[in-house]
């Protein structure tokens, strides 16, 4: 397809501390005992997109990510790893490597996506519409544990997240409006010019911008060059392109008129709100056809560009590992309802226990669990809906529920771990009780400690 692919792999993301560190950048965080970046790379490989630039924030992180890629994908992908300064943002990262971009179209993919939606389908939709940008939208994932170890039932329901307010044309192919983050708390204001041109818009708040975009390179480079303050692709570049697609001056019945700045106020309470056709009759074609043809008294002085969407099927899985909660959710999903993504074969008990793992007597590893290579568990242990990494040493009478335990972790007798993330090389001494905690790499939790909702980590030097 002669698309160039840029994978934005981040660095040591602040909102993932203490899971990330200098030794473990975000791209190498384990999902079902595989680096999260492997899910994106294999998804691209399946779409035959094998020429990649992987952008990592920070020189040290880039060296670690590059070293892992060169070992894991040596004969499969052509990958160039580019280091950019930390905290430049996604737009800044693209700006820093823009001199490497030469293809007509660029596919920009976040390195933290875990999904089975083929990127090639987004690229094909982009080409079909000759769009300047095509954004992939997915159903917003639900968050929180399906099954809580606590006796109170209040944690048992998963809640859908609210991500964006998105305005689409009736065919759901064109992106007409997008608001993210803090803007969601305010009433939406939509330009009358957009409503007049499109006639009808559907507002949705149950879709997630998956941070997978196809761009026309010339337009992307122009925006990055001209808008030096733009920091984020999602919050700056995309909304700017969406806003400016109808900014050209308009000829109405032969008279040149500047574009109106008037806004229509729209309540965003309803999930799907159909706006009445405003200043338009029911037979109006799509606004891109209308502008191109100059029909209905309109003609564009400057050609408007198209911002399009590719909406993934609701049966597809798509989530981003951009928070500690998302890390836990995705690990649970990939060994549960989204097991097709794991790359592993499951046992008849619906779990994955490495042949080299050892289990003591009366120890149970439930369905939707994973026990990694070389790990050992003592007697009378119980593991439910959890991932346990490689070469862990777990004593007797240990309970692990809804948790992720990384590699080389030592857990003493009588420990109870619930809703927690235990990073590599951690030592939990006897009778430690953890609920909803994160324990950073190499930390030692002393015997008998009881912690709830805490982040425990060594001070970084």
From TrEMBL:
<dbReference type="InterPro" id="IPR056764">
    <property type="entry name" value="LbH_EIF2B3/5"/>
</dbReference>
<feature type="domain" description="Nucleotidyl transferase">
    <location>
        <begin position="5"/>
        <end position="152"/>
    </location>
</feature>
<dbReference type="InterPro" id="IPR029044">
    <property type="entry name" value="Nucleotide-diphossugar_trans"/>
</dbReference>
<dbReference type="Pfam" id="PF00483">
    <property type="entry name" value="NTP_transferase"/>
</dbReference>
<dbReference type="GO" id="GO:0005851">
    <property type="term" value="C:eukaryotic translation initiation factor 2B complex"/>
</dbReference>
<dbReference type="GO" id="GO:0005085">
    <property type="term" value="F:guanyl-nucleotide exchange factor activity"/>
</dbReference>
<dbReference type="InterPro" id="IPR051960">
    <property type="entry name" value="eIF2B_gamma"/>
</dbReference>
<comment type="function">
    <text>Acts as a component of the translation initiation factor 2B (eIF2B) complex, which catalyzes the exchange of GDP for GTP on the eukaryotic initiation factor 2 (eIF2) complex gamma subunit. Its guanine nucleotide exchange factor activity is repressed when bound to eIF2 complex phosphorylated on the alpha subunit, thereby limiting the amount of methionyl-initiator methionine tRNA available to the ribosome and consequently global translation is repressed.</text>
</comment>
<dbReference type="GO" id="GO:0003743">
    <property type="term" value="F:translation initiation factor activity"/>
</dbReference>
<feature type="region of interest" description="Disordered">
    <location>
        <begin position="143"/>
        <end position="162"/>
    </location>
</feature>
<keyword id="KW-0648">Protein biosynthesis</keyword>
<feature type="domain" description="EIF2B subunit epsilon/gamma LbH">
    <location>
        <begin position="354"/>
        <end position="447"/>
    </location>
</feature>
<keyword id="KW-0396">Initiation factor</keyword>
<comment type="similarity">
    <text>Belongs to the eIF-2B gamma/epsilon subunits family.</text>
</comment>
<protein>
    <recommendedName>
        <fullName>Translation initiation factor eIF2B subunit gamma</fullName>
    </recommendedName>
</protein>
<dbReference type="GO" id="GO:0005829">
    <property type="term" value="C:cytosol"/>
</dbReference>
<dbReference type="InterPro" id="IPR005835">
    <property type="entry name" value="NTP_transferase_dom"/>
</dbReference>
<keyword id="KW-0963">Cytoplasm</keyword>
<dbReference type="Pfam" id="PF25084">
    <property type="entry name" value="LbH_EIF2B"/>
</dbReference>
<dbReference type="GO" id="GO:0002183">
    <property type="term" value="P:cytoplasmic translational initiation"/>
</dbReference>
<comment type="subunit">
    <text>Component of the translation initiation factor 2B (eIF2B) complex which is a heterodecamer of two sets of five different subunits: alpha, beta, gamma, delta and epsilon. Subunits alpha, beta and delta comprise a regulatory subcomplex and subunits epsilon and gamma comprise a catalytic subcomplex. Within the complex, the hexameric regulatory complex resides at the center, with the two heterodimeric catalytic subcomplexes bound on opposite sides.</text>
</comment>
């Amino acid at each position: 397809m002669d698309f160039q692919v840029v994978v934005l792999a981040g660095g040591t993301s602040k909102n993932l501390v203490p899971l990330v560190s200098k030794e473990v950048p975000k791209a190498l965080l384990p999902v079902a005992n595989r680096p999260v970046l492997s899910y994106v790379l294999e998804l691209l490989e399946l779409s035959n997109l094998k020429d990649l630039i992987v952008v990592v924030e920070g020189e040290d992180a880039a060296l670690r990510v590059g070293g892992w890629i060169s070992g894991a994908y040596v004969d499969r992908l052509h990958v160039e790893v580019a280091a950019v300064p930390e905290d430049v943002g996604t737009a800044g990262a693209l700006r820093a490597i823009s001199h490497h971009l030469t293809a007509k179209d660029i596919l920009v993919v976040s390195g933290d996506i875990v999904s089975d939606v083929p990127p090639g389908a987004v690229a094909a939709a982009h080409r079909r519409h000759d769009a300047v940008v095509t954004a992939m939208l997915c159903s917003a994932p639900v968050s929180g544990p399906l099954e809580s170890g606590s006796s109170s039932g209040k944690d048992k329901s998963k809640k859908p997240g609210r991500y964006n307010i998105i305005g689409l044309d009736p065919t759901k192919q064109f992106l007409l409006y997008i608001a993210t983050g803090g803007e969601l708390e305010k009433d939406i204001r939509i330009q009358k010019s957009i409503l007049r041109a499109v006639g009808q818009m559907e507002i949705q708040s149950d879709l997630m911008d998956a941070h997978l975009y196809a761009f026309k390179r010339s337009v992307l480079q122009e925006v990055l060059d001209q808008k030096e303050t733009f920091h984020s692709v999602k919050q700056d570049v995309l909304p700017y392109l969406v806003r400016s697609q109808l900014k050209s001056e308009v000829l109405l019945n032969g008279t040149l008129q500047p574009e109106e700045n008037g806004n229509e106020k729209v309540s965003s309470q309803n999930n799907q709100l159909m706006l009445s056709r405003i200043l338009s009759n029911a037979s109006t074609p799509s606004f891109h056809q209308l502008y191109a043809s100059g029909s209905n008294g309109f003609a564009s002085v400057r050609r408007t560009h198209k911002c399009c969407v590719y909406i993934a099927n609701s049966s597809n899985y798509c989530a981003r590992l951009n928070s500690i909660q998302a890390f836990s959710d995705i690990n649970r999903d990939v060994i549960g309802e989204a097991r097709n993504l794991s790359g592993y074969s499951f046992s008849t008990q619906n779990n994955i226990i490495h042949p080299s793992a050892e289990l003591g007597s009366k120890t149970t590893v439930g369905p939707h669990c994973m026990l990694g290579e070389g790990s050992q568990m003592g007697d009378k242990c119980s593991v439910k809906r959890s991932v346990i990494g490689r070469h862990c040493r777990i004593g007797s009478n240990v309970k692990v529920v809804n948790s992720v335990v990384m590699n080389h972790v030592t857990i003493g007798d009588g420990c109870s771990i619930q809703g927690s993330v235990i990073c590599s090389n951690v030592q939990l001494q006897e009778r430690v009780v953890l609920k909803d905690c994160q324990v950073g790499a190499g930390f030692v939790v002393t015997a008998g400690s009881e912690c709830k909702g805490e982040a425990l980590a060594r001070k970084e030097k």
